[in-house]
Every structure is written in structure tokens, then in C-alpha cells.
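Can anyone check this?
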Amino acid sequence: MEFLKLVRRRSFLSEAVYMVLNIALAIALLLTIRYTESIFLAIALVVVSKWRVLAVRPRFWLANLRSNLIDFIVSISVVLHLYTINIAAIDDGRKLILLGIVTALYIGWLLFLKPRSKRSYVAAQAGVAVLIGTAALFTVSYNWPVSIVVIGMWVIGFAAARHVLNTYDDETHGLFISLAFGVAIAEIGWVAYHWAIAYSLPLITSLQLPQVAIISLLVSFVGFKAYDSFYHHQKIRTNDIILPLLFTLSVIAVLIFVFNRVGTAI
């Protein structure tokens, strides 16, 4: 009994330390962006916080980096969004509220969503990375070469697909499908680079959500449902895919043919 009590105390202590360190990271990123406006210093904090990725033999670095790629994408995207909000032409009160909201959401990611391993949560993690990763990339890359944007989109697509496919027992096709999905997302990014549309957020007209982020998330959702159907039934069943596909096509059609009239070019 004493041993069990000791294990519980250590478990509680480790959980408490884990929570405190993650909250401290989120607050440190906020303060760094707020008072130094240095993206690179904030990204350096993110890299340092992931020291465990490299705290193994070098032959495991690539595997660890690949398994933590979604977390890196989300964390760096949060840094970029914090920076965008901090330099936005809005009053200081609303700016602080937005910075606080983004920081709170990042804390939620670190403490509640990222540690989950159930397939539905893993799919949600990949979806978050696709949405905010694409949004961050297109928010800051308006004057970048198209090749860098396409490569960035490929990394996001590959990481998201690989992250989800790792929950399935299919090593034969997992890597190939991840590579192919990365190419598909990169192609969407290439088109979006030449036809960049963004939507002003409610009550915060100086901040915009790129259309390509929404489309990439919807395409990823359909891809996930299609693969899940194929994995369980050895074919893509119409009943499994028809509703997600119709929903995705409907939303994309509305975005392109209706909301593009009120969208603005990035």
C-alpha cells in the first residue's frame, strides 16, 4: 500500500510539473512576442521546449522529429498568429484580449488535445495543424517565393496524413499515402498562392482567415473518411463518404461563388 501511495504521489507530481511547464511555455511565447516582437526568439523557445526530441541517439532524431512534426507546426503557427495579432492595427484592449485567447487555446492544445492518443483525437490534432498551419503560412508568406509556400504546404499535408495513418496498422501504404497527400495539399497551396482570398474575422476586420486554410481542412477531412472506410472494408463505401464529400463540396462552392465577393486578396 505504501508503494502504491508513493507511485500515486509521483504520478501527481509529474502531472503537475508537466502542466506548469506547458503553461509557462505558452505564457513565455506571449510575453516574448508582446515585448520583443521577435519571431525568431519565440521559435527558439519552442525548439528548446522540445529538447526531448533530440535527447536520444542521433539515429532516432529523424523518427522523433517526424512524430513531433504536428506539434512543431501548431506551436510555430501559434507564434506567427501571436505576432500577427501583436502588430495588427487594432486598439490595445482588443489586442490583449486576442493575445490572451490564442494563448489560452494553445494551453488547451498542450494540456488536453496533444496528449490524447485515441484515433478521433489524433485526427483532430492533424486537423488543427492543417487549419492554423495553413492560415499562418499564408498570412506571413504574401511576398515569399511560391516554391517556399508550396514546400510548406507539402510539409503540413505530409505531417497531417502521417500523424493520422500512424494510428492504423498499415505500414505498407502509410508512407506512400502521406507523400501523395502532401502533394495534393501542395497543389492546393500553389493554386491559392496565385488566387489568394481571405475573410475578415467578425469584429476584427484587420485580421483575416485565408480561404485556403478552410479548403485544406475540408479536403483533409474527406481524405480521412475515405481512408478509414477503405481500411475497415477494403473499399471506399459510398455510405461512409457521401455526406463528408457533399458537405465539403457545398462549403467550397459557397466559399468560391458566394463569399469570394466579400473576400479580400491577401
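Reply from J.R.: I decoded it. The longest helix spans residues 2-36.
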